Amino acid sequence: xxxxxxxxxxxxxxxxxxxxxxxxxxxxxxxxxxxxxxxxxxxxxxxxxxxxxxxxxxxxxxxxxxxxxxxxxxxxxxxxxxxxxxxxxxxxxxxxxxxxxxxxxxxxxxxxxxxxxxxxxxxxxxxxxxxxxxxxxxxxxxxxxxxxxxxxxxxxxxxxxxxxxxxxxxxxxxxxxxxxxxxxxxxxxxxxxxxxxxxxxxxxxxxxxxxxxxxxxxxxxxxxxxxxxxxxxxxxxxxxxxxxxxxxxxxxxxxxxxxxxxxxxxxxxxxxxxxxxxxxxxxxxxxxxxxxxxxxxxxxxxx
Length: 303
Ligand SMILES: [Zn+2]
Ligand SMILES: [Zn+2]
Known about the structure:
The chain is an alpha/beta fold.
């Protein structure tokens, strides 16, 4: 394998779906795989990425149904060079200090986030599109802060739990195309039901989509499949690409449709015909042959 040059920075942003409703139900279904087990696996992945090369960078964003929250680096993270609290940085067991501090902070942040959760009836979808947008902004910021001559490769890994939300279709597609434009890979590790939106995201940006057969083995899938970067992947035998569900959500009801009406001006998609596009307010001239015919028929008997 070709070692990355010291000047190249590799930034990995992990977006973890921490939807409290899904994880609550999951704890009942499979008590051996809970949110804390999932985060353990994510930390193993994050730590592995950080120790691969000195210049590797990491960010972890928790995608909740109320907010998208940075678990790492976070506000508790003081100078950003790995020396936080005195007691945290002196890990007596010889563990790499950066990792032990980072892991403690991530655990602390997620505990705070989950304890301030207030689930209201209508707010149950994970704000995944928003979290991805936040990830893109973070990548952009890090890219701007690079030293002269440094190059950066970045990718986003989504660990997805809850169902897709068709309401976020538009925002999601915009995020995907923005990522594609910046050549940022989006990978998806799906724990439960398949996600059409993430299938499209991975397909468009050249990332990997995998619905894992066993949740309990999450850490192994993360390390085997998602830790290698795009250069190393070409030399590995990875799970074959999935069939991508390319259905679009209609702009009127956010239903996934295979055949629909498309506004010829703004390309909005509708499941029913409407004479005026609700997005750009173009009025369509409706062909009227049937109306004309019926009038002629009516006229004929009278003549
Ligand atoms: Zn519709
Ligand atoms: Zn239109």
